């Protein structure tokens, strides 16, 4: 079976290229030549390499099932900084450079922090420029409770990067009037959950949200908290961390 043949190549690199042009190819349903590059500023940690491999292995399985067995990841190339310790498994990169990588592992962004993100300038359907993960995201397992399995996160970001799709939630307008009741902005509407005002502190208890009768929506500060037990299977672009979610929204 194709999923068992994921091939990883380790490349040592030094020079940065000019411009950004992905070398990814889609061959008979398998993505080839995905380049994942570690920024030279990232402190050496072999666990990063190990967790990148595990993330991609989990991602190819999730992608395969999410696309109804149409797509998977056939191989990736991991670019290792020359400043890291040498290894007999590493070979010298040829045309692969950090500036042309599809996925970069770099220090936290001043705005996003450790949040995984894809740099997208284009409209819907236009591919992104690169996916960004931080070392903390790859190393700190306590973050899994917030983001979900790393392989699922990879597929979520891959959809941004490769297919040019956008998130199916709206942080600026988290709720809307459906005509019958106030709904959380989400996809799909079959995802169940609760609307609460969050709070912090040992003696603090979240409370249900109240209706603002002027706007007809829920009061400011209200958040939708999905139930962990779901039957909804869509959508990867809303909340891939939910265990039941294994599909991209069909248009």
Structure overview:
The protein folds into two domains: 2-163; 168-251, no CATH class. It is α/β, with parallel strands linked by helices and 251 residues long. Helix 1 crosses helix 4. It has five helices and 15 strands. The longest helix has 21 residues, at 46-66.
**Biggest β-sheet, characterized?**
7 strands, mixed
Give the CA-based shape.
Answer: elongated
Query: What's the structural domain tally?
Result: 2
Estimate what percentage of residues fall within beta strands: 15-25%
InterPro entries: CLCA_N
Protein name: Calcium-activated chloride channel N-terminal domain-containing protein
Keywords: Signal
Pfam families: CLCA (PF08434)
Secondary structure layout:
Layout: E1 7-13, E2 25-27, E3 30-32, E4 34-38, H1 46-66, E5 72-73, E6 75-81, E7 90-92, E8 103-105, E9 117-119, E10 130-133, H2 135-139, H3 144-147, H4 150-163, E11 175-177, E12 182-184, E13 193-197, E14 207-208, E15 223-226, H5 236-239
Parallel strand pairs: 1-6, 1-7, 3-5, 4-6, 4-8, 8-10
Antiparallel strand pairs: 2-3, 9-10, 11-12, 13-14, 13-15
Organism: Leptobrachium leishanense (Leishan spiny toad)
Protein name: Calcium-activated chloride channel N-terminal domain-containing protein
Keywords: Signal
